[in-house]
Amino acid sequence: MPQDAAERERVDHILEAATRGAALTRQLLAFSRQQPMETRVLELADSVRGLEKMLRRLIGEDVEMVILCGAQATRVKADPSQIEQVIMNLALNARDAMPEGGRLIIETAPVELDASYALSHPDAKAGSHVQLAVSDSGTGISAEIINHIFEPFFTTKAPSKGTGLGLATVYGIARQSGGHVAVYTELGRGTTFKVYLPRVEAAADEQPAPVAAGPAAIVTETVLVLEDEEALRDVLEPEHVLDAGEIEAELRRQPLDQPQALDVGVRVEPRAARRAPGAHETLRLVQA
Predict the structure, then answer these.
(1) Considering just the CA atoms, what is the radius of gyration of the chain in Å?
(2) Domain spanning 8-198: CATH superfamily
(3) Is 141 exposed, middle or buried (0-12, 13-18, 19+ CB in 10 A)?
(4) Which of 196, 87, 97 is nearest to 142 (CA)?
(5) pLDDT mean values, one per 10 residues, the chain (288 residues)
(6) Which of 40, 51, 96, 169 is most buried per CB count within 10 Å?
(7) Helix-helix angle 80-96:8-32, to 10 degrees
(8) pLDDT tens profile 240-256
(9) What is the 8-class DSSP label of residue 245?
(10) d(Cα 70, Cα 169) in Å, to the nearest integer?
(11) CA separation (Å) from 288 to 82, 89, 201, 207, 268?
């Protein structure tokens, strides 16, 4: 779609909101280990290369990104979507550590972890691994904070800037995949996160062919959306958007045109709908 297209801004809002929602859902599921894993043999270097264009857009022009993936085999058995999430989380964490810009290096390589390393890192195992290293030239991590960085919901970012699940998710996925995460940091000089995953010798599995999309369904039902997320309200037609103060008034209006349809109100706090004495009896609430 051209940059100057009339619908471009709305499409960008949709993509941003969908990406944020999907990322948070994946992080919550991965952290709770409720997300089913679909493991296959993959080249870790290919996963990094496949995300390069997206990462360059996300980290911005102030950060120089360098990808170092050699020709050596970097095959691991893991869930491809979870591996991509690990790469994305570490890259975005590195970007946030460089508010004035800097250098981000992402590299992959086969490595051997010896018995002495495993002895000093209780959650690591000796043997052949593939290393994913993500390094930044940012602020570094203080001694007071470094012992907490993998704790769920721990964050030093502003409330609107982070969930505190990024690094916890990286750690959880690595451990679920039989791997290990190490961090090296120096104040004022930067930080390197190293994810070690067991190396496998089997050939990489072929990626499944994409499923062709069927014809778009024609929707005739009435969907009532009561939304407190501004980005989502912006992509709706103005005449269909309700501010918080209008919710009760809307629910007291005459019954909806199609009472047999699926009428859904989506809101974080649906108390207004519950209080409205004239709310249509078929209205169902989905709490987000």
Answers:
(1) 23
(2) Histidine kinase-like ATPase, C-terminal domain (3.30.565.10)
(3) buried
(4) 97
(5) 68 71 62 68 94 89 93 92 92 92 95 93 92 95 88 72 78 91 94 96 68 60 59 57 55 51 42 47 46
(6) 169
(7) 110
(8) 555 555 555 655 565 54
(9) G
(10) 27
(11) 24, 24, 44, 34, 5
Q: Are 95 and 58 in contact (CB under 8 A)?
A: yes
Calculate ∠ Cα 203-44-24, nearest 5°: 130
Domain boundaries of the chain, sorted by first residue: 8-198, 230-287
Q: Residue 209 and residue 111: Cα distance in Å, rounded?
A: 32
| pTM recorded for the entire structure | 0.62
**DSSP-based three-state secondary structure for 189:** coil
Amino acid sitting at position 280? H
DSSP string over 199-242 = B--SPPPPPPPPPPP-PPPPP-S--------HHHHHTS-GGG--
DSSP-derived 3-state class of residue 269: coil
Provide the Cα torsion 192, 195, 196, 202; round to 10°. -130
H-helix segments, the chain = 8-32, 44-59, 80-96, 115-120, 143-146, 166-176, 230-234, 247-251, 271-275
- Do 89 and 167 touch, CB atoms closer than 8 A? yes
What is the DSSP secondary structure assignment for residue 257, as one 8-state letter? Answer: S
CB of 189 closer than 8 Å to CB of 142:
no
